[in-house]
Specification:
Blueprint: E1 6-14, H1 20-30, H2 51-56, E2 63-69, E3 76-82, H3 90-97, E4 102-108, H4 115-126, E5 131-136, H5 145-156, E6 160-162, E7 164-168, E8 176-179, H6 185-195, H7 200-208, H8 215-227, E9 232-236, H9 245-255, E10 268-276, E11 282-290, E12 292-294, E13 301-302, E14 314-319, E15 322-325, E16 328-330, E17 334-338, E18 348-350, E19 367-373, H10 379-392, E20 399-400, E21 407-411, H11 415-428, E22 432-434, E23 438-439, E24 442-445, E25 449-453, E26 464-472, E27 479-483, H12 492-505, E28 518-527, H13 534-552, E29 554-568, H14 572-581, E30 585-586, E31 590-592, E32 595-603, H15 607-618, E33 623-633, E34 636-637, E35 648-649
Parallel strand pairs: 1-3, 1-4, 4-5, 5-9, 6-9, 27-28
Antiparallel strand pairs: 2-3, 7-8, 10-11, 10-18, 11-17, 12-16, 13-18, 14-15, 14-17, 19-21, 19-22, 19-23, 20-21, 24-29, 25-26, 26-28, 29-32, 29-33, 30-32, 31-32, 34-35
Length: 655
């Protein structure tokens, strides 16, 4: 097995079709891991292993491969994580970001900066992940590395340092790329202009005497500022022909922060991916930040239940392109673990990693659909299958209608339906269809409502007394549970049952949607010391809270995206009509050369429809970028599927 003194966990990120998976293949080939470069079009790449990935030519699941760089004391082991580029699978990218040491953001020299490119760069910048930019496809017709470099500077709004350029045959298979020489005056001046912005000592040396700043000092400053995420070197080349790849590899090896992690420290690791094995067992992928993990170790798993210490029954680490069984995994490595039967994505093994915040960086899915089995007899099997798939992708958000047989899942977009249907057919033998996509709304409390039930009171057959008052809270304030009853008026177990039930019940308000922001106050309590049970308090709390919610009143709010739309000026009339048809609220257009840029608000369930129409409206030149913004009052008070509540129109639609 290949060993190295340093390990780098590297993410390859891009907008779909920028050449991310092809770059992965080229890097593996350059390192000698594979003897022949696979093709996305041919469906024989190493990292796209799913049949759907090969058929569609897109990455759906993140994949890990390994390749070595250098030798001796400077040897570097790179765990390369290929991530999806399609926005429908942004959740896969989110899970990977928390385990990366650095990233390469791939941009096409033909299409340039795309909507997903902007989303990814903003996130990498916010998380301060050291990032190199690679302008790919300089061998393709229509390539323009200079134009795309300008787009990177303007649209991504980050300090960049060009490291090379195309010197021959731009847009042809023979395109040649050369790195800037250390004595290139323009290159040196560009380095100084960018690096002195963040380095006062370097600025002082430059102002004192420009010639007194040797290239070694500039190089050292470039390394430091790249590793801190303040500056982003830009390379150009072609993953298909190999042009510029040697320069990019040097940048990965010298500029990104690979460290010698401490294997003697306490164990600290995080699970970022969960799969199912052939026998249905869970297989966890975990980045080890410190310490070591061995077969037969009992591992403390935060999130799997109090005191959970499952035993690792088998283990693998990545070496030269594949996962290889090993007796131990050490700090810096990615381990493939068997035996952690209850582990979930995001769980911590051992201690919480220092300086590695983990959580939501992209908005949660704002759409959902009902999954319908072709054979009604498969409904139970479908629920089991979706439950297992939700373990691998928690944002599937599986929901079972408590009043009926319907099963709903959350979506980022329509492509996920095809992927989910294929997974159910291939892995579980279940054929499904989907109902129309609908937005995932929320209900906001509009007033104050109260209700109570007293022991032995007519109509209350439960041995419990519960009274609750519901009031609205500020948007984003969350759920607050308070008590006006005397401390000790209920045993702690009963009080805990009431609070837990309040929070669970608010997941489904009178219209069937989540009630996210409100204050619930307990106003009445009582119990029978001999016969009352926690179960009776749970049942009564649910009834009382729903009654209080109906008296307070709730209104449905729909998810709204902020959009930016670039299109040719001669398409303005057609685009304006389409925006009106999709209930958008556009701001006045801004002229940019011979194009317009329009920003505004768009209902989440209209994003896909507008995007589908855009190529025809703009002769293929329109670019739509969207991101969740907020919830606004829905024009129709729509009940969630399975909720016995009619729809009624509201009188306004404020934003």
């Amino acid at each position: 097995m290949h060993t190295a003194s340093r390990t780098l966990n590297l993410g390859i990120l891009a907008h779909v079709d920028a050449g991310k998976t092809s770059l992965t293949e080229r890097l593996l080939y350059a390192a000698g891991v594979i003897g022949e470069i696979g093709s996305v079009d041919a469906g024989n790449t190493l990292t796209d292993s799913l049949e759907m990935e090969r058929r569609r030519g897109i990455t759906i699941k993140s994949a890990v491969v390994n390749f070595p760089l250098g030798s001796g004391g400077s040897a570097l082991s790179v765990n390369l994580i290929d991530t999806p580029g399609h926005p429908d699978f942004i959740a896969e990218v989110e899970r990977v970001l928390g385990v990366l040491d650095g990233a390469v953001l791939v941009v096409s020299a033909v299409e340039g900066v795309q909507p997903q490119t902007r989303v990814l760069m903003r996130t990498l910048k916010r998380l301060a992940i050291p990032t190199l930019v690679f302008i790919n496809k300089v061998d393709r017709r229509g390539a323009d590395d200079a134009r795309v470099l300008r787009e990177v500077r303007r649209a991504l709004d980050v300090p960049v340092v060009p490291m090379g350029r195309v010197v021959a045959d731009l847009g042809a298979a023979s395109a040649g790329v050369a790195a800037f020489a250390p004595d290139d005056t323009a290159f040196t001046q560009g380095l100084l202009d960018v690096l002195t912005t963040h380095d006062d000592a370097l600025l002082g040396a430059y102002l004192a005497d420009e010639r007194s700043v040797p290239h070694e000092r500039l190089r050292s400053a470039l390394v430091a500022q790249t590793r801190s995420g303040r500056v982003h070197p830009v390379y150009v080349g072609s993953a298909i022909t190999g042009a510029g790849i040697a320069d990019l590899v040097e940048g990965i090896e010298r500029l990104l922060p690979a460290e010698r992690a401490d294997a003697r420290a306490p164990l600290s690791a995080r699970v970022f991916k969960v799969e199912r094995g052939g026998g249905g067992e869970r297989i966890a992928y975990a980045r080890i930040f410190s310490g070591r993990l061995a077969v037969r170790d009992r591992v403390p798993v935060a999130g799997a239940g109090a005191g959970a210490r499952p035993k690792v029954t088998d283990l693998a680490v990545f070496d030269r392109g594949a996962a290889v069984r090993a007796p131990v995994a050490r700090a810096g490595q990615i381990a493939v673990l068997h035996g952690l039967s209850r582990v979930r994505i995001g769980d911590v093994l051992g201690q919480e990693p220092d300086g590695r915040p983990y959580g939501r960086v992209f908005a949660a899915p704002s759409l959902e659909t009902v999954v319908v089995p072709a054979d009604p007899a498969d409904r139970g099997a479908l629920h089991h299958a979706l439950t297992q798939l939700a373990e691998q992708d928690p944002l599937i958000g599986l929901r079972r209608d408590p009043d009926g047989p319907e099963l709903s899942v959350s979506l980022y977009g329509e492509v996920q339906k095809e992927v989910l249907a294929a997974a159910l057919a291939q892995e579980y033998g279940i054929t499904v269809s989907f109902r129309g996509t609908t937005p995932i709304c929320v209900e906001r409390v509009t007033g104050t409502g109260a209700a109570h039930e007293i022991i032995d009171q007519e109509g209350n057959r439960l041995l419990a007394t519960v009274g609750l008052r519901v009031e609205p809270a500020r948007v984003g304030g969350g759920i607050a549970f308070r008590r006006e009853v005397e401390l000790g008026s209920l045993p702690p177990g009963y009080m805990r049952a009431v609070e837990e039930t309040v929070r669970a019940t608010l997941g489904r308000g009178p219209f069937g949607w989540q009630v996210p922001d409100c204050t619930v106050t307990m106003t009445h309590s009582g119990f029978c010391s001999i016969r009352s049970t926690a179960g009776e308090f749970r049942a009564l709390t649910r009834l009382v809270l729903m009654s209080a919610l109906r008296r307070a009143g709730t209104v449905v709010h729909e998810p709204v995206h902020r959009f930016r739309l670039d299109f040719p000026q001669d398409a303005h009339a057609a685009v304006a009509l389409a925006l009106a048809r999709h209930r958008a609220q556009p701001e006045p257009p801004v002229a940019r050369g011979d194009a317009y840029v329009v920003e505004g608000l768009l209902p989440a369930d209209r994003v896909h429809g507008l995007g589908r129409e855009l190529p025809a409206l703009t002769s293929g030149e329109g670019v739509l970028e969207t991101a969740f913004s907020h919830y606004r009052l829905a024009p129709v008070q729509r009940a969630r599927a399975g909720t016995d509540r009619g729809a009624r129109a509201t009188g306004s639609d404020p934003s």
